[in-house]
Amino acid sequence: MANTPSNMLPLGTKAPLFTLPDTVSDSMVSLERAKGENGTVVMFICNHCPFVIHVNNTLVSIANAYAEKGIAFIAISSNDVVNYPQDGPDKMKVHAKAEGYPFPYLYDETQEVAKAYDAACTPDLYVFDKDLKLTYRGQLDDSRPGNGLPVTGSDLSHALDCLIEGKENTQVQKPSIGCNIKWKL
Predict the structure, then answer these.
(1) Sign of the C-alpha dihedral computed for residues 95, 106, 108 and 143 taken in this order
(2) N or C: which end of the chain has fewer CB within 10 A?
């Protein structure tokens, strides 16, 4: 289990557009069509990462809670499935259903979307406003597998509350820590 930090894309960056296959609905999903009325969370996750497994329930809870506030969530897996077959699209579909993901779980086979976002780890979280400008990037909260801290989602929830309320997020934005994205060789 590698402790890889986020690269921390500059705030204000416009979200790179994408259209990727959704492993749950078996349809193509674009950022333009899936974005939320008030904001959008783009998450790079995968099936097998212990850091993602550690926060899955909280990601689902937050996504459900903020959907009614006009915030859309989009999950993307960009891992190399040749060397990590447990992260392949067929297993992503099963995993998403088992976890109760209320958001699309997209497969970035070429890894071009992960590169466009400068994603480094799973989970890697990005919050964009209604105009798709980056307002937050980083960790869900301070909890990590084995550190004994409860998973609260406090950093992400605070960022979303600031976005919805039109307030500046003055909290320090800490990088996420997780498994590195499994890049193709």
Answers:
(1) negative
(2) C
Beta bridge partners of 75: 43, 105
Q: Closest Cα partner for 48 from 2, 7, 6, 8?
A: 2
pLDDT in tens, 8-55: 999 999 999 999 999 999 999 999 999 999 999 999 999 999 999 999
Beta-sheet strand order (sheet of 121-122)? 4-5, 177-180, 121-122
Q: Which of 43, 48, 44, 57 is nearest to 87 (CA)?
A: 48
Residue with tokens 């067929």: 90
CB 123 within 8 A of CB 178: yes
pLDDT in tens, 58-85: 999 999 999 999 999 999 999 999 999 9
